[in-house]
Amino acid sequence: MPLLPIIEADVKAALKSSEKVKLSVLRLLKAAIKNRQIEKGQELSDEEILAVISTLIKQRRESIEQFSRGGRADLVEQEQQEMAVLQAYMPHQLSPEDIDRLIREAIQASGAAGEADLGKVMRILAPRIKGVADGKIVNNRVRELLQPS
Question: Residue 65 pLDDT more than 90?
Fold first, then answer.
């Protein structure tokens, strides 16, 4: 089933059950999807909707990081709740072991020898991890694996 009708149904359910956080996040998500549709001039595919959700999750992660540094536990908790609502729409995320396996395969396929070859590895990895792993985490892990031991 396409994602947009699922999100719309969840908005109605959150409204009926008075789930304020979920309702707020889903309304924000619908607005972000609508804005992206207007930019694009057509309906979004599920993959494009997942990209919008991924962007919103990334924003939450960055906010959590900033609020943690600022000692704002209340705002960290709120952002974590919002992120949990958004992550429910994402495909199952890869485990660290699966990410490492994909990275090693990409390193081998690209013939990367050091950190200077990071771009070659990421070009191979990017399509494989899109939507199922955080690019920042993968990038950091690739750097670790490319460093000489």
Answer: yes
Taking only the tens place, the pLDDT of each residue in 66-116 is: 999 999 999 999 999 999 999 899 888 888 888 889 888 888 888 888 888
Tokens of 104: 């090693």
Is-above-0.85 flag for pTM? no
How many whole angstroms separate alpha carbon 139 and alpha carbon 127? Answer: 13
> To 10 degrees, the CA torsion angle through 36, 89, 20, 79?
-80
pLDDT of 75 reads: 93
8 A C-beta contact, residue 146 and residue 122: no
In what helix (H) or strand (E) does residue 46 lie, and over which residues does it extend? helix 46-69
**CA angle, 113 then 116 then 117, to 5°:** 60
* Own/partner pairs, 59-62, CB within 8 angstroms, 24+ separation: 60/86, 61/134
Q: Indicate the burial class of 113 (C-beta count within 10 angstroms; 0-12, 13-18, 19 or more).
A: exposed
- Note the maximum CA span of the chain: 57
**Domains of the chain, start order:** 3-87 (1.10.1510.10), 96-146 (1.10.10.410)
